[in-house]
């Protein structure tokens, strides 16, 4: 059996769980993290007491950096392991869960990192320290984990196109203005704000909480598993294009998926034409 | 015949009506207010001249506090009286009316108070004095008057879940940022702003105004009467749960539905776990 | 053949085109401009290299003032000429185009000017110099070019009703808060911001850009050509109403469609009841 510990689950109280995400050095989303999230969802769905779960990162620089392109086809020998194409099912479990999920955002969350946060019911972001992006188009592919789908529902068509076609880094204030996150909160207040929110929700009765979420699910616009499946397969298609592969390989040479300037400043780095101009353009 | 005077209707001009809501001490929404709103809608629908109606409160502390749980089953002997389950029909009359309805918000509007404002076409709120909440989950029930439905359409899924599952008080600036109200306006300017807006609308031709509202109704996302009916009946179901009844009874002991700290500071009070921890949890 | 030059197309690079709109004195949208935009779309659709197009105005006071009511029935003898009712088809070509369209907004854009900007995928507006309005109801008609349809999708029902039934001028900050524009940007930074965004997009691969836009189109809410057709014909109906015609004639007497105070300050001028009170009210 594989031995991994990407997630540390703490029951702050029986009704309020906290999940610490840790996959050094940059918190890549990889097959082991996927497996552990699937197991977390099993636990959340079968527990009788839990009402709210908070996901946060152990890494102050990265909430979840993005997808680990190098290990996409790995299927670890561990409980919860699933092929990449099970992602739409997994995130739909979050939206349908009887538990309220809250992403507490510090550091960078790009691509599938942003999409994991979007899969959570609520997002509170550090005003100074959260950085959000859907950089896929700049990488040569398209968002495959729900970026276009969730953002279309939350921020409207024009801002989704700006985010997705520009691939730029966004700070928390802009993300709040657009509706990408619920709120941008001064970093010094973020922990207390989220803890207070979670304790408050946990103190309410479970039945009305669950029914309220179901009523919102009935009415709100958000992507279905089938719609997410479509985006996921569109991504898989783009990643086979030769020009996309060449661009991704160049990015890896430049530090993509490693700790360093490329991952720290990806928004700016994707816009440096000189780094890519010798590559095939289609 | 019952004698009540919850609403005072003033024809500022034939095209611009003002409605003053007054039900001391905290402007509870009760069966008499319901009956009078139904009669107001009859008048608005049959009048040839009216183009815009402004709803405001006579009580600086409360716009409309919330539903009067103690008098839910009362059917007053007065014109317009209707069972509680007619609410979805009533609010749909606002959205379909040939008249533009504007809620001028000062003081607290929680639960059905917020939902009456949401049923109006436009909401302008006092920056310093408006307080909005959907506290139902904290009370032990779920929103029954359109809170989940209207908010899902206006502020998106994630912020609706924060509002509804957190049950917290919101100020006007946050409500504006979320889209719960059209605008947050400094209190000193609010009256003039709304009066100017209403006079302006009243000076335009009635036919284009009506057609423009119909075109928006054709395209915009907002809850149908059937969708509101569903939320209304979900609420009625929750209010029968024993744990919910116990919580509501405790709240009444603590001042719910009376003038005092509980109604003034309900957001904070619902989060005081010590007040509820001896109650059944499901 | 008619000789007009409303649009000047510059290929900043093969992948990044700039379109300068110029129709002195106030940049009215007229049949010649329509014909040239149709030809622009032909060029954009057939070009192999273009990825992004920026539309801006040569006139610092007006981006596109609005529809030229005086020349609605003119069919110029020039390529691209089309009847007014082809507008819904034209704007749908923008939303479906494989190219990303960006409106850089300085000066006034009201009515069909706002609607041409709404037809573009993305809108960046000068904080100090952009003025947006859908003044049609104040003119006596209804928006016919997608105003109700696009705004319903972008800013929600309540704010659409405020914009459309109030007919007021909006500054860029308020338009940003509502979602009418993507961003309000200090005027001194606007050119560089938009140029940087366009160059960035142009440096990305064309295939992922196109697919990303298609994925957003699949999921986002925005008006179909059929829905825009309906609004267009509603407008044509209102413009035949006698009271509407009388109001429009009065507006022309007061300077509508000419350079001067009416066009510069239309928001305020439409609210001056004394100018219209002797006219028929229906």
Oligomer: homotrimer
Measured by DSSP, the beta-strand proportion of chain A falls in 15-25%
Taking the sheet with the most strands of chain A, its summary is: 8 strands, mixed
Distance between the termini of chain A: 42 Å
Plain-language structure description:
The structure is a homotrimer of 282-residue chains. Chain A has 282 residues and is of the alpha/beta class. Helix content of chain A is 46%, strand content 18%. Chain A has 12 helices and 8 strands. In chain A, strands 1, 2, 3, 4, 5, 6, 7 and 8 form an 8-stranded mixed sheet that branches. In chain A, helix 1 runs parallel beside helix 2. The longest helix of chain A has 20 residues, at 147-166. The mean pLDDT of chain A is 96. The A-B interface holds A 100, 121-123, 153-154, 176-177, 179, 182, 196-197, 199-201, 203-209, 211-213, 215-222 and B 136-138, 140-143, 148-149, 152-153, 156-162, 164-168, 177, 221, 223, 227, 230-231, 234, 238, 241, 243-244, 247, 270-271, 273, 276-277, 281-282.
The gist of it:
The structure is a homotrimer of 282-residue chains. Chain A is α/β, with parallel strands linked by helices and 282 residues long.
């Amino acid at each position: 059996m594989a031995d991994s510990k990407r997630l540390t689950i703490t029951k702050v109280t029986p009704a309020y769980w906290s999940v610490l995400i840790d996959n050094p050095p940059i918190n890549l989303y990889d097959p082991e993290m996927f497996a552990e999230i699937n197991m977390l969802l099993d636990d959340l769905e079968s527990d009788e007491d839990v009402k709210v779960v908070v996901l946060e990162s152990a890494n102050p620089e990265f909430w979840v950096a993005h997808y680990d392109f190098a290990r996409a086809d790995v299927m670890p020998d561990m409980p919860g392991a699933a092929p990449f194409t099970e992602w739409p099912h997994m995130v739909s479990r979050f939206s349908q869960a009887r538990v309220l999920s809250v992403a507490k955002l510090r550091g960078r969350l790009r691509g599938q990192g942003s999409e994991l946060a979007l899969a959570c019911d609520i997002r509170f972001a550090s005003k100074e320290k959260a950085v959000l992006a859907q950089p896929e188009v700049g990488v040569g592919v398209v968002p495959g984990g729900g970026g276009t789908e969730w953002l279309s529902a939350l921020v409207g068509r024009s801002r989704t196109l700006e985010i997705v076609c520009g691939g730029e880094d966004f700070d928390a204030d802009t993300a709040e203005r657009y509706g990408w996150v619920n709120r941008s909160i001064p970093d010094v207040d973020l922990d207390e704000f989220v803890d207070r929110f979670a304790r408050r929700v946990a103190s309410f009765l479970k039945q009305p909480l669950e029914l309220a979420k179901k009523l919102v699910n009935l009415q709100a616009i958000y992507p279905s598993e089938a719609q997410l499946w479509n985006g996921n397969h569109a991504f898989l298609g783009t990643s086979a294009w030769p020009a996309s592969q060449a661009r991704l390989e160049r990015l890896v040479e430049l530090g993509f998926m490693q700790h360093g300037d490329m991952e720290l400043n990806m928004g700016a780095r994707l816009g440096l034409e000189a780094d890519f101009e010798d590559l095939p353009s289609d």
